[in-house]
Amino acid sequence: MSSLSQLEPRPVKSSSNTQDDIVYEHIFDAILEQRLAPGTKLSEEALGDIFGVSRTIIRRALLRLSHEQVVIIRPNRGAVVAAPSVEEARQIFAARRVVELAVTELAVQNATPESLARMRAMVKEEQDAFARGDRGSGIRLSGEFHLELAHMANNTPLLNFQRSVVSQTSLIIAQYEVGHQAHCSFNEHEILLNAIESGDKDTAMQQMTEHLNHIEAKLNLDGDSASTDLHVVFSGVAKKRRGR
Predict the structure, then answer these.
(1) SS3 of the chain: helix, strand, coil, percent, to 5
(2) Which molecular function terms from Gene Ontology are attached (predicted)?
(3) Which of 29, 72, 77, 89 has the fewest Cβ atoms within 10 Å of its own Cβ atom?
């Protein structure tokens, strides 16, 4: 896994985003793409230098991430990327099963041709990313697929919870996955969409359960891995700032 500064972050979604929105999105994406290792110290000074913003902006972004439990803010010692224990990892997967099944059931009820087409495009983009060897983007798109599924469910509290457990799951995978096993989630995502589109709630929920089981089966909950340099992970931000 790379350290914090050498990978290019993806573009910010909207030019109307505030500065702390932008910082938040970059850090959230770095977690989804597994470029930020569990346990990485998130120096306010380093991040302020990387993004060219004040520590106040950085603190607001880190506070938002702490509410989603992917960043831990330690009094008088600063913030770090969360590093779930084995027991916490199991609890997070148990919670994710509950929320994903609820999301899937509601998605079957609320799916529209437009939302299905949007999600099929995401699956294609995810497949293309893995095909060209861009594992980080593929992992991020896989996580975003599940967030978009929560949008399809049309339930804001579930979406907020989904955002937290998806990013926490990414940390668990970064910390505990055995090697870089072949990633076939886009095939499972496509099968899930087929069930949702057909209105087959039972099959859709069964497919979601199997999908989560496959993700968890790739983990060695006795393992550990890490990588930690903020400037490396967010080097793309610094390059863009220097280029202006």
Answers:
(1) 65, 5, 30
(2) DNA binding; DNA-binding transcription factor activity
(3) 77
Which of helix, strand or coil describes residue 74?
Answer: strand
Residue 5, helix vs strand vs coil: strand
* pLDDT tens, residue by residue, 105-131: 999 999 999 999 999 999 999 999 988
- Could you give all domains of the chain from N- to C-terminal order, each with its CATH number? 19-83+226-243 (1.10.10.10), 86-217 (1.20.120.530)
User: What is each CA distance from 72 to 10, 44, 66, 195, 221, in whole angstroms?
Assistant: 24, 13, 6, 38, 21
| Stated length of the chain | 244
CB neighbours (10 Å) of residue 27? 30
8 and 237 Cβ atoms separated by less than 8 Å: no
Which of 70, 88, 67 shows the shortest CA–CA distance to 80? 70
**R_g (Cα) of the chain, nearest Å:** 18
Q: Across the beta sheet with 41-42, what order do the strands follow?
A: 41-42, 78-81, 71-74
Confidence of residue 203 (pLDDT cuts 50, 70, 90): very high
Q: Is 213 exposed, middle or buried (0-12, 13-18, 19+ CB in 10 A)?
A: exposed
Cβ neighbours for 14, distance < 8 A, ≥ 6 positions apart: none
